[in-house]
Design goal:
This protein is mostly helical and 483 residues long. The protein folds into two domains: 328 residues, no CATH class; 119 residues, no CATH class. The chain is built from 19 helices and four strands. α16 packs antiparallel against α19. It is globular. The N terminus and C terminus are likely disordered.
Length: 483
């Protein structure tokens, strides 16, 4: 079993000469009807010991099983010490002080109402509701594809009696797939919990609304070898957590924008059945334990190279880069002059990303997206330039609407964006996008659109705004071909 929830193969990987019948080559492995019935009973018993996917949720995988495995992963070898009261007090004070400092660095209000210190097990428990929304669409595609493919493999030449009895078997296969994905997800979340320092470390809004949390064990691990005081490490990471929470709390469309990109990507996922076909070829189905092992070793997901999936990945990467770049810019400016080792701590964050931090590993595993450090550097450079030219108010106003955000092309040419699109946006432009078209904004939050489109600006109210909108659209169109 893999230690990550899903393993990705690019389209075209593997053997082209795939057997078309996943049950091909089994010959007499089914045996007589009595043997087949006995196999079904044994298979049901095995499923019962693992738990059906619906036992922990209404989704395709068993989240109770996933949480139990994740907690077991973090507690083994004493890896999840309880949070001491003294540690909890220091974390809460650091998060509160961080928010006071950030008031001077951003116009976005504080987003943390409940500062908390989490153990690794508490991180798992506190973030699973969001992980369900992220992973369930992918797991659903996997379970449905497996069940459908194995069902289609029975063929018309199989006796009717055996086809009727195979129905429960296929249902059990779906249950087994859900249990396997739940187990793999649990292992992955447990491994991730050992690395994260906060609720926002992977770049997604994982914590409940209003909650900001640091993990004392993760904070300590981050500071090892830096030769920086524990108080300074804690406060720097508190600044990053508090900055993330300001975005997640006060940019209402951002949560749906990020999670929607993952869901859009999941819709195009297919299951590469070549491994399953090879694994079950010649397998004796009277041995369900062997079938379980074969299925576990043979599953892999293949992201389809469709325009929709490419657009979803591009949108996800660009938005994640913009979030992290904004946090870097705000935190480093606030920390400068307050934390003596701010530069060293910022460099530690960059090194962690370059070598594959929690966010990089999560998205590479989950959706096959490799976050490029260069993209993050470009986003940081754009926000810094925008701050210098437009000031804090002008920089943060970009978050007013998703269509004001820089595009992927803008990241490669930040000066063109800062001195073109962003510089040309007046207060009237922002008002035209955000206030008169509240219906369009709400619709964007529910179903995020592609970056660069301005649904609220297509039919502006008043003749005076029309020229501005046309000029804005023209400016964006001119910038894109040159990128």
């Amino acid at each position: 079993m893999n230690d990550t929830p899903f393993g990705f193969n690019r389209p075209g990987d593997g053997d082209d000469d795939k057997p078309q019948d996943p049950f091909g080559g089994m010959g007499g492995g089914m045996g007589d009807m009595r043997q087949f019935a006995d196999m079904l009973h044994r298979f049901a018993d095995m499923i019962g010991t693992q738990g059906a996917p619906g036992a922990g949720s209404d989704g395709p995988l068993n989240w109770d099983l996933a949480k139990n495995i994740a907690r077991h992963t973090v507690v083994e070898n004493g890896g999840d010490p309880s949070v001491l009261e003294a540690e909890r007090t220091k974390i809460v004070e650091a998060l509160r002080l961080a928010d006071l400092w950030l008031d001077e660095g951003t116009t976005l209000p504080a987003g943390i109402r409940t500062p908390q210190a989490w153990s690794r097990s508490e991180w798992i428990e506190g973030t699973v509701p969001v992980w369900e929304k992220v992973i369930d669409p992918i797991a659903s595609r996997m379970v449905e594809s497996m069940g459908g493919a194995l069902g289609g493999g029975l063929g018309e030449d199989v006796p009717a009696e055996m086809q009727a009895m195979a129905g429960p078997l296929l249902g059990m296969v779906r249950q087994m797939a859900g249990a396997m994905v739940g187990g793999q997800t649990g292992q992955a979340l447990g491994a991730l919990a050992k690395e994260v320092t906060s609720s926002s470390d992977v770049g997604l809004p994982l914590a409940p609304a209003g909650v900001g949390a640091l993990l004392p064990a993760g904070v300590t691990a981050f500071g090892e070898g830096l030769e920086v005081s524990a108080d300074e490490v804690r406060l720097y990471l508190a600044l990053r957590e508090a900055a993330h929470q300001r975005l997640f709390a006060h940019v209402p469309w951002l949560r749906g924008h990020l999670l929607g990109a993952v869901e859009d990507y999941a819709r195009g996922i297919t299951v590469d059945l070549s491994g399953i076909e090879q694994a079950v070829s010649g397998l004796d189905l009277s041995n369900p334990e062997a079938l379980q092992e074969a299925l576990g070793d043979g599953i892999s997901l293949t992201p389809a190279e469709t325009p929709q999936q490419k657009a979803a990945l591009a949108r996800l990467e660009t938005t994640l880069a913009l979030v992290e770049g904004w946090v870097d810019t705000v935190v480093n400016r606030v920390a400068e002059g307050r934390l003596p080792e701010a530069v060293k701590l910022a460099e530690a964050v960059r090194r962690r990303r370059a070598t594959g931090g929690p966010a990089e590993r999560t998205f590479a595993t989950l959706v096959g997206l490799e976050l490029r450090p260069r993209r993050l550097r470009e986003a940081g450079a754009l926000w810094r330039t925008l701050t210098d030219v437009r000031g804090t108010d002008g920089r943060d106003a970009v978050w007013e609407h998703p269509d004001l955000l820089p595009t992927a092309d803008d990241l490669t040419d930040p000066d063109a964006y800062v001195h073109g699109t962003a510089e040309g946006l007046s207060d009237a432009d922002l008002t035209a996008l955000t206030e008169p078209h509240s219906t369009e904004v709400a619709r964007t939050e529910d179903a995020p659109g592609a970056l660069g489109q301005v649904p609220g600006a297509e039919k502006p109210e008043g003749d005076g705004d029309q020229g501005k909108d046309e000029g804005q659209d023209k400016g964006k169109g001119d910038a894109e071909p040159g990128a």
